[in-house]
Amino acid sequence: MPVKYLPLTPAPWLVALMLAVSSLAAAQVEPLAGLDDYISQAMTTFQVPGVAVAVVKDGKVVLAKGYGVRKLGEPAKVDEHTLFGIGSNTKAFTTAALAMLVDEGRIGWDDRVVERLPGFQMYDPYVTHEMTIRDLLTHRSGMGLGEGDLLFFPPSDYTSAQIIQKLRYMKPASSFRSKYAYDNLLYMAAGEIVPAVTGKPWSDTIRERIFKPLGMNDSNTSVTELLPGTNFATPHSLVEGKLTPIPLTGIDNTAPAGAINSSVSDMAKWIMAQLDGGVIGGTTQRLFSQARNREMWSPQTIVPVSDPPPALAPVRTNFAAYGLGWGLREYRGRKYVGHTGGLPGYVSQVALIPEMKLGVVVLTNQEATGLFLSIILHVLDRYMGAGEYDWVKVHAELMEKQKADAAETERKQAAARPADSKPALPLEKYAGAYLDAWYGAINIALQEGKLVMRFSHTPALTGDLEHWQYDTFKVRWRDRSLGADAFVTFSLNAEGGIKEATMKPVSPLTDFSYDFQDLTIVPVEKK
């Protein structure tokens, strides 16, 4: 039967059909429709004052926009150029700077660290000798989760050099290269490789070799650059249930692990270069080679996975790993490359689906991870044609369950303690100078009949010791924005004096960077 050609002027019924199909296709390929309302709902649910979102698809920025306000109670709006602390999303920048040096043949991923940082030393001599630059970037050193973070968080007066020197006193939690445990200090050490090789500070290298070529003109590497009048979002936290603006947190002493401040306008340029294998948009130049790009997105350390709660079934993954500065997993059958970032009052996430040339960035000025997770997953679902899923509802319910579970844990703790127990010693016997091998000096003083604990290098860690049971006290930090009260338990020696004190967080929701459990506090002998 011969093929009939359509007339140049279609019949009316065909025009109607074509318009209907066109409208249906448009509905299917418009993934950002209704996103503003979705974000507004999420902000209300999670009590977040300000959010900025960027979406990149096929080498183009399809969204770079701010929502809400920079500071609660003030009119200044968040826009695409508003700066937020991106926290650990900084780690990918540090890795990229090292990748450039690998491309230039100035270092290798498997160079031993002691060859580049002669003073570098871990607790175990074998680990000191064998640790490579790759090991610094892959969270497999044997250190415990967040071990040593108290050296810089809350902000301390320790220098980067002093923090590196203290690594030798931190006892491993597992054997070398056997287990994934996220850390920050070794990323700071990795950042020190840059000046050791180039003679230029890490911050200068990031500005000159990444920010400037990409046109990331908003971004900087220190909160000291967030001056009054600057377009930046004030951090916020729920302080004993009330949403409150809090001071900026300076972590210049561990900058390569988390100190960058950026905007979604700039981060869109960053993820475009990532998705394009290191190519600087609109040019033939590169930040790093495609080979380095593949290495950074290749599994280096296996991360254990388990089935999520039923409500989170869509995020179930068959694998998870950490690459070089990036987390790796799958989402709905596609490779997912991403990272989160957190600082007091800021949380953020970068998510890339390389197969789709798709990238999403969410920056916030409140510590509500449910918000950025909901937005990221909503946008990815839309582009993947996965249908609607109420991520805001799911994450809000999970957040409330976590809070309820934590409250129940604390209730059981209180119910189990003997209310009539007493300390073994008079309060003045607990007062004195103490020392932890890696943190340093900690003082406990008796003031107006109460014990007060002070971490000598961390002003925010000043708190009142309230008797809990037997020789265990609860330290209640005077800065209530910390949300990190801890138990302090004293052990006695055979002579009835204090042998040592140990600590652990009270709430299971305490941020892992408050690694009180890694301290062993011993009294300083009086001369």
List keywords for this structure.
527 residues; alpha+beta; Beta-lactamase; eight-stranded antiparallel sheet; disordered N terminus
| Main sheet: strands, sense, barrel | 8 strands, antiparallel
Figure out the total of helices: 14
* CATH class call of the largest domain: Alpha Beta
Question: Please, what is the average pLDDT?
Answer: 93
The domain tally reads 2
Q: Please count the beta strands (DSSP E, at least 2 residues each).
A: 20
The backbone outline, from C-alpha atoms, is: globular
Order of adjacent strands in the largest pleated sheet: 2-1-12-11-10-9-8-7
CATH overall fold name of the largest domain: Beta-lactamase
Q: Which oligomeric state applies?
A: single chain
Q: Helices and strands: which structural class? A: alpha+beta
> Could you say what the CATH architecture of the largest domain is?
3-Layer(aba) Sandwich
Low-pLDDT segments? 1-27
Strand percentage: 15-25%
Helix content: 25-40%
The CATH superfamily of the largest domain is DD-peptidase/beta-lactamase superfamily
Compute the gyration radius: what is it? 26 Å
Please write out the topology.
Elements: H1 12-28, H2 35-46, E1 50-57, E2 60-68, E3 84-85, H3 90-103, H4 113-116, H5 125-130, H6 133-136, H7 160-166, H8 185-198, H9 202-214, E4 236-239, E5 242-245, H10 255-258, E6 261-262, H11 264-275, H12 290-296, E7 301-302, E8 320-322, E9 327-331, E10 334-343, E11 346-353, E12 358-364, H13 369-384, H14 391-416, E13 432-436, E14 440-447, E15 450-455, E16 462-469, E17 472-477, E18 486-492, E19 498-505, E20 521-523
